Glycosyl hydrolase family 43
Amino acid sequence: MKPFSLALLLAFSVLSCTTRAQEHKITNDRFWNTVDGEPIYSQGGGIFQFTDPQSGTPKYYWYGVHYQEAETYRNDPSVTLERNHFEGVTCYTSTDLVNWTFEKHVLTKEAVNFEENPTWLGRMGVAYIEALEQYALLIQHGKNVMIALADSPLGDFKVHRHIDMTSRIGTPNTGDQTVFTDPDTGVSYLVYSYGQGRNKIYISEIGVRDGKVDLLEVHEIFRGASREGNCMFKYNDKYYMAASNIYGWDGSFAYYLVADDIYGPYKPTNEMQVMPGSEQDYAHVSQTGFFYTVRGSEQETVLFCGDRWAEFAGNGLGYNQWVPLSFDGETPYFNSLHSWKLNETTGTWSVAADNNYIKNPSFEADRRHIPSNNKPVQEQLLGWHTEILQGNPISTTEATSPVLNHFNTQKDRQHVIGEKSLHISDQVPFERRITQELSSTPYVNLPNGKYRLSATIKNTTGFEELNLYAQSDTQTFKTSFNTSNPEWTTITIDEVAVVNGSVTVGIYVKGAAGAEAWVDDVRFELLD
């Protein structure tokens, strides 16, 4: 069964305009389910469009890896896990990119003999090999690239070969990898990095050599700072190479390069740029996973599909964080959204009514105690600004510096999200203001109207003042919680009036030496 033809796609698009011309909501920061209410387990994969073997019409196929620990973490997010066990490559299908149906494990544990050889499998994608009329699944398997073949996009995929990359790039394994299919040519490529240090990125066409599926010529497109999460997308006839920092399982800036040709040259040469918007919360507390470009009847929209490897890092609920990109010329802009709507037919999108406008609301973006003098050197919490009015100054080197975040205990995480929270304390009497400025951007409007501000807090005695507040124009809205709250408690301010598309939300404290407060899960939502 071959991929769809252009004529068939056009016919399908016309039909879609009458049957599916509506928006569907994507909500991040939670675990996703299928249309049947079953858990979605899909990490480190990609979305591809193939012809449905049953109906003969185009359909979206989302492939990813199902790890045993993903189930454990979903059932109990208070525990951070340290291992991963391969359950299989899942396949979900959709016609609107939002509502997904589970099909099957298209690559099983038995197919890779996982029980006898329980090594790493991950970072995979699927390409159609026209010369063989086969579908090829490429996945990292131990220290090699494994290729498995099937007659259908629904599998079952069987091991075809393993490729040791030593003779091609100098290491047996790829660092990270994804499959990118050029939407204009239908040609598929493996995008991958040097296996040690990951300071080089390559592209190879996926083709046939000596009767076997193979990676053809190696094209080095980047050599510079170490990067991982390598993936590509195409927008407005430009090719974009994207990647993240070498931060293990934690969130990262989203970096990019751009070129006119898939093999480059990519600009700026060997100097990846931070995608504007992603710096506010490390790409919605995720890593670059893969992208998908929706070519609708009204506009192209690029979906950033971020990985949140929560079963390893405990950095927030949900494994997949998808947001739409906007563009200023060739520059992509990352729209960090909690909740938004996509119309797959038109390609248009909008912010959902229940969007949380706070960036880094659960304080999970920062991978270390802040201030940090160790990768990255950082004084302030991402998305937040701490102003010291009285007390010890913030310093990455002085032992007297206050620590701005707290590593939550397992007991904490039974009440609040993730491993970290805001920490407010000092060794001396202190006065402090922690704020975040929210305002409209060229791409996401902060509507004027009434909002609800809420946070989950816990605090000791010793506070003269401890306030949650919001200020817009000349109006200030606040609530005090300076009495002792030994258990996590949610506090709320309703009817916060936003005018002129701008508001400051924050916490103001004035406390005695040794007084402590913790804040987590801040929300700022438009009221109906």
In short: The CA atoms of residues 68 and 85 lie 5 Å apart. Residues 1-20 have pLDDT under 50 and may be disordered.
